[in-house]
């Protein structure tokens, strides 16, 4: 037993059968603080434990090697040193310092591993790897001491703080471990505590990260042009460090440039050749090869995404110049010698206009900007030099804005440069002083738009820039002091439009700025373009109609003006003007030829007019209007009206009537005007039938009165829209009604059946003779009913049904299908036609089912199937060709024969829509009880109905029956079996969706959730019983049952007492 002088330290040595065992406690001064080293033996093993003030614990196996013995003759300190020399740590069971060092190392390496995931997108990550690569190159041999490597990392100025922080943590942990181990017994295997080769790990991570970066870049390569792809893949030849000069955004830019070479311009040709992109890439690649930088941050980014958008703007300007300067092609304005873009400067204009000067300056500025941002030349360190001429003037900008200009990123300032350059020639001209003042707030708002919009949405900026230039360029002539053509209405419309733009630009909502600003300008530009090219250039068939055409123009402007005066948001303004612009396109397509009736013809007009004959009706087209008028004047006759112009004037008056709906909201009023404009635009196709009328006044009536009735008789917007849809459908369908006859329809059907049989092996045939006979029988009955009112049609139908034996559809004979069904179908179609045509009844025409729709119904019912019953059948009806009508008529026909129709669809919305649309039609046949035999369902609804039962004669769902049964509210003996479906026909809408994996083959799984509040009382009751000390299972169960019986016997659940 060896003790220190103060007896705080001791070593005990025991000899057991010739083997020495050591135990004791020693004090070690580690990190300037005392640590207690305890050791002893358990069985044949010596164990060592160290506890420090900092709780840096150690526990492991120990062995004492042979050597000088510890004796009482030596001092305790000498024995202590001798013991520590002979002691060897054989294994480490627990070492907190080692654990902390390993964790710090793991975190450091994990940070590097995580970093390379973003190496292609994050400049900070790329810079870290770049600096680590340079560090690796600066040492030919590995760092033997990891602390030396880590110290260099922590002191590196260009590495990120997070890398240096983790490296610092690892140094601290390593130093603590090394310092302790110097005073510690030695380890038998130093690899247990020495740090694995950090330099090799770092090399491996760098290699993996660079390879990941290479693969990321190659994955961004486009696949649209093989030669360019091969060109871009030359990055494989770059050294690892220089590969980091390229980021994903750079490859994305070249991908966009390659797409640009394949895009056709509005002139119909491809403006940018492939050699252009090749030339740009070569410049870009050469710059990388020649560069050798100490930091990526001083070099990257070497491209700017705005380059692509500037090229698109440049293309738009060239296109506009070609349009304005006629007999000029794009190849005369720009050239690509060996792929190098250059421009012809200056352009020779035939006339001097401010807009031409604007285009010239835009072309030059954007070309200079393209060169500034060109890959291979661009550097983020160099700013583009431009002096504002317009946007910094006091009435457009403020001193505060001028200061903020210097804080705007260069790629955003670029769009302000372009607007300033384009509009300065126009707005700085003295003749446009009035318009400059009017538009200054719009420009100030545009500056704000560029400044505050979140994220760099360059395409939005580009489109907005293009639109604001176009808007001001198109509208300034109306205000010009020298060439103003602005009417008072035009002035009011433009002022209101500018007010709306200002409101949008003042909005604090970025989304509003982004979504509405460009849309507004785009739709305004389209309006003014149509104002110039359509409204301002309406054809005048003859000088005598000049005032009529001017009246049409005035009415067109009045509609927009009245809409602008209404109080509604920019979204409705966009929708309204979009419909108005669409209407003008339809107006532009009208044939303004002057037709006269046979009554106005006399023989002296031969050669001046051209005869047009359709059937037994003859009309005349006036070929030489002015001579025609002269001839009439000699005969002292009054020129006949131009009935197309008269019709348009009347239709515009009807539109203006909608603004007089005093009890309608502004939104409903403007919405209805937009809807009416679109519907009238669609009806212009009916103008082609002008020569079908003996009396042209009837033509005017048929084109206008249905719309007039809708406007005059509607109570609210909902009523208006419903009636308008019917009228619009009439004009759309009336021209299609006779486009395809039964012969052509049967021919198409036979062709499709043959294709289906060949491709899908469907065992289907078609008998055209039977189908044609059935269709003729249907048509004959329809003709006989066309002059009857609905009430009379229903009386005739009742008589017809009295002669018919109402059999299940499985027993329908060929004779029944071919003779009875077409007649019954005609009754149904006649009622539907009468109902749908009520809004156009005034012109004595009806909307009727198309022959293809009738043919489809006849095929579905198997009229050409020479056997009893109705075969299962697929029918393909394209979108918009009347599936809803087919299903509605066939359902009604099935119900008339005392069978039931289940119409099912995957969509609850579509099913409810069709049910609602056809409810008025089915209601007309209330005496035949059709509605009870027709149901519109989803697939789940259908499954539920097949599982219904009758309880005491009342139909109930399986859900309610199950719930009542479980809760003891139901006597199962009164439940009848489910209904008989033998007379039920299943009609599946959107059958292709039904046969998808979401429906076909799946099961319907009904679940009942039983709600009883008393069930919630059982759990708390169990806890109360157990907390009272009762834990025996049978006793707990008995007490719970007592609670249940108590609740069952209560007044609320008295029925359970049975």
From TrEMBL:
Give the residues annotated as coiled coil: none
GO: which molecular function terms? ATP binding
Q: Where is the SecA DEAD-like N-terminal domain positioned along the sequence? A: 777-939
Biological process according to GO: protein import
**GO-annotated cellular components:** membrane
The family database entries (Pfam families) matched by this protein are listed as: SecA_DEAD
Source organism superkingdom: Eukaryota
What is the protein name for this chain? SecA DEAD-like N-terminal domain-containing protein
- InterPro entries referenced in this protein's UniProt entry, alphabetically: P-loop_NTPase, SecA_DEAD
């Amino acid at each position: 037993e060896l003790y220190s002088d103060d007896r705080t330290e001791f070593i005990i040595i025991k000899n057991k059968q010739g083997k020495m065992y050591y135990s004791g406690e020693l004090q070690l001064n580690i990190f300037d603080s005392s640590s207690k080293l305890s050791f002893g033996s358990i069985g044949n093993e010596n164990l060592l434990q160290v506890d420090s003030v900092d709780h840096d614990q150690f526990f492991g196996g120990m062995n004492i090697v042979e050597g000088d013995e510890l004796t009482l003759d030596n001092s305790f300190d000498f024995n202590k040193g001798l013991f520590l020399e002979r002691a060897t740590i054989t294994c480490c069971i627990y070492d907190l310092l080692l654990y902390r060092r390993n964790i710090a190392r793991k975190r450091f390496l994990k940070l590097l591993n995580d970093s390379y995931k973003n190496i292609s997108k994050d400049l900070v990550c790329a810079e870290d790897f770049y600096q680590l690569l340079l560090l690796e190159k600066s040492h030919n041999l590995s760092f033997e001491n990891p602390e030396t490597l880590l110290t260099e990392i922590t002191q590196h100025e260009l590495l990120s703080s997070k890398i240096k922080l983790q490296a610092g943590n690892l140094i601290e942990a390593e130093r603590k471990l090394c310092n302790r181990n110097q005073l510690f017994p030695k380890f038998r295997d130093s690899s247990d505590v020495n740090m694995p080769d950090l330099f090799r790990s770092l090399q491996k991570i760098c290699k993996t990260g660079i390879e990941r970066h290479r693969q990321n870049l190659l994955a961004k390569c486009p696949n649209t042009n093989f030669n360019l792809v091969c060109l871009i893949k030359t990055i494989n030849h770059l050294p690892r460090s220089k590969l980091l000069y390229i980021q994903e955004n750079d490859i994305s830019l070249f991908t966009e440039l390659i797409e640009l070479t394949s895009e056709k311009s509005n002139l119909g040709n491809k403006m940018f050749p492939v050699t252009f992109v090749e030339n740009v890439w070569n410049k870009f690649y050469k710059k990388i090869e020649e560069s050798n930088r100490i930091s990526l941050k001083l070099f990257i980014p070497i491209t700017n995404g705005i380059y692509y958008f500037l090229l698109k703007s440049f293309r738009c300007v060239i296109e506009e110049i070609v349009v304005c300067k006629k007999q000029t092609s794009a190849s005369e304005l720009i050239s690509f010698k060996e792929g190098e873009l250059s421009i012809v400067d200056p352009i020779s204009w035939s006339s001097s206009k401010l807009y031409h000067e604007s285009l010239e300056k835009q072309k030059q500025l954007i070309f200079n900007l393209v060169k500034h941002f060109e890959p291979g030349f661009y550097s983020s360190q160099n700013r583009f030099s431009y002096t504002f001429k317009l946007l910094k003037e006091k009435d457009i900008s403020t001193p505060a804005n001028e200061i903020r200009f210097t804080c705007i990123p260069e790629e955003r300032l670029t769009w302000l440069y372009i607007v300033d350059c384009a509009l300065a020639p126009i707005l700085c001209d003295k003749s446009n002083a009035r318009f400059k003042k009017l538009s200054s707030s719009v420009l100030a708002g545009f500056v704000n738009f560029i400044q505050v919009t979140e994220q760099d949405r360059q395409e939005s900026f580009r489109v907005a820039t293009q639109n604001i230039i176009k808007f001001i360029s198109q509208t300034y002539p109306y205000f010009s002091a020298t060439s103003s053509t602005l009417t008072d209405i035009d002035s009011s419309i433009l002022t209101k439009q500018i007010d709306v733009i200002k409101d949008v630009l003042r909005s604090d909502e970025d989304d509003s700025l982004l979504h509405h600003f460009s849309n507004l300008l785009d739709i305004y530009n389209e309006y003014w373009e149509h104002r110039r090219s359509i409204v301002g250039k309406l054809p005048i068939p003859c000088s005598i109609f000049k005032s009529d055409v001017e009246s049409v123009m005035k009415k067109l402007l009045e509609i927009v003006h009245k809409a602008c005066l209404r109080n509604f948001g920019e979204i409705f303004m966009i929708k309204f003007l979009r419909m108005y612009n669409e209407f003008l396109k339809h107006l532009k397509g009208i044939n303004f030829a002057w037709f006269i009736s046979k009554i106005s013809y006399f023989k002296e007009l031969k050669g001046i007019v051209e005869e047009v004959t359709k059937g037994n009706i003859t009309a005349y087209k006036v070929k030489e209007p002015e001579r025609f008028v002269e001839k009439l004047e000699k005969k002292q006759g009054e020129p006949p009206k131009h009935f197309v112009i008269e019709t348009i004037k009347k239709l515009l008056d009807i539109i203006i009537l909608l603004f007089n709906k005093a009890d309608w909201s502004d939104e409903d009023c403007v919405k209805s005007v937009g809807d009416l404009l679109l519907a009238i635009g669609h009806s212009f196709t009916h103008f082609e039938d002008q020569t079908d009328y003996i009396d042209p006044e009837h033509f005017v009536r048929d084109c206008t009165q249905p719309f007039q009735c809708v406007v005059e008789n509607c109570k609210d917007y909902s009523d208006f829209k419903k009636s308008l849809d019917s009228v619009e459908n009439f004009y759309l369908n009336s021209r299609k009604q006779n486009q395809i006859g039964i012969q052509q329809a049967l021919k198409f059907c036979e062709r499709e059946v043959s294709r289906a049989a060949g491709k899908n092996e469907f065992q289907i045939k078609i008998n055209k003779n039977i189908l044609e006979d059935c269709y003729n029988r249907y048509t004959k009955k329809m003709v006989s009913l066309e002059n009857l009112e609905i009430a009379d049609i229903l009386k005739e139908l009742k008589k017809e049904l009295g002669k018919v034996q109402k059999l299940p559809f499985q027993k329908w004979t060929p004779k029944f299908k071919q003779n009875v069904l077409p007649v019954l179908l005609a009754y149904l179609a006649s009622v539907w036609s009468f109902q749908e045509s009520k809004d156009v009844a005034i012109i004595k025409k009806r909307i009727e089912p198309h022959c293809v729709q009738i043919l489809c119904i006849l095929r579905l019912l198997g009229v050409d199937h020479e056997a009893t019953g109705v075969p299962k059948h697929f029918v393909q009806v394209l979108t918009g060709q009347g599936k809803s009508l087919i299903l509605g008529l066939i359902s009604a026909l099935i119900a008339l024969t005392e069978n039931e129709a289940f119409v099912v669809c995957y969509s609850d919305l579509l099913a409810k829509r069709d049910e609602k649309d056809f409810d008025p039609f089915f209601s007309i046949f209330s005496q035949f009880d059709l509605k009870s035999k027709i149901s519109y369902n989803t697939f789940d609804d259908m499954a539920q109905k097949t599982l219904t039962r009758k309880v005491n004669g009342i139909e109930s769902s399986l859900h309610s029956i199950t719930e009542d049964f479980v809760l003891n509210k139901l006597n199962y003996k009164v439940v009848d079996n489910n209904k008989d479906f033998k007379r039920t026909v299943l009609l599946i809408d959107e059958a292709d969706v039904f046969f998808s994996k979401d429906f076909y083959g799946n099961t319907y799984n009904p679940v009942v959730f039983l709600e009883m509040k008393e069930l919630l009382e059982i759990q708390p009751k169990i806890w109360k019983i157990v907390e009272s000390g009762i834990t025996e299972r049978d006793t707990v169960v008995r007490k719970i049952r007592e609670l249940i019986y108590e609740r069952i016997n209560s007044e609320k659940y008295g029925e359970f007492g049975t």
